[in-house]
Amino acid sequence: MSHLINLMLVTGLTTLSGLMDARGFYYAPLAWPGGRLDGRYAALSIVCFAGGLSLYILAVRFMQHVGVGSVAVQSAIWFVVTAIGIAVLDGSVLQWTRVQQLVAALVFLGLAWLISTTRVTNA
To answer: Using N-to-C axis directions, what is the helix angle for 3-30 and 98-117, rounded to 10°?
Structure first.
């Protein structure tokens, strides 16, 4: 499989994984209205986390194909996508200053650069 296709799969799967996990984080507090468990939101949260985790495991396979073997880089990619996803879902990204939005975009671009330039080294 070509390097470009692997990069596209890494980007797509990691984005979907982060967004699924972000949705899980979004539903989790809704599962406890008034201190009582709402089974529907609890189930939605669990399903989203399970989906996000499954997609992340698949994304790691393609990360390894493009040479991203570092767990730190792999998890950093997921973390940024998830954090931005949460901010988008709860609307707080719209309250960010332009500088905060610019930094988020630069971090995303920086991680994209790390993905495309990092190679696995065997010690």
So the answer is: 140
Three-state SS at 113 = helix
Judge whether residue 83 has pLDDT over 90: no
Q: How many Å is the maximal CA-CA distance in the chain?
A: 53
Cα–Cα distance measured from residue 84 to residue 79, given in angstroms and rounded to the nearest whole number:
9
pLDDT in tens, 4-62: 898 889 888 988 998 999 999 999 999 999 999 999 999 999 999 999 999 999 998 98
Q: Where are the beta strands (DSSP E) in 23-123?
A: none
Distances (CA, A) of 83 to 68, 76, 77, 96: 21, 10, 10, 13
CA distance 87 to 36: 25
Q: Which two tokens stand for residue 29?
A: 């507090």
Domain boundaries of the chain, sorted by first residue: 3-117
**What pTM was computed for the model?**
0.72
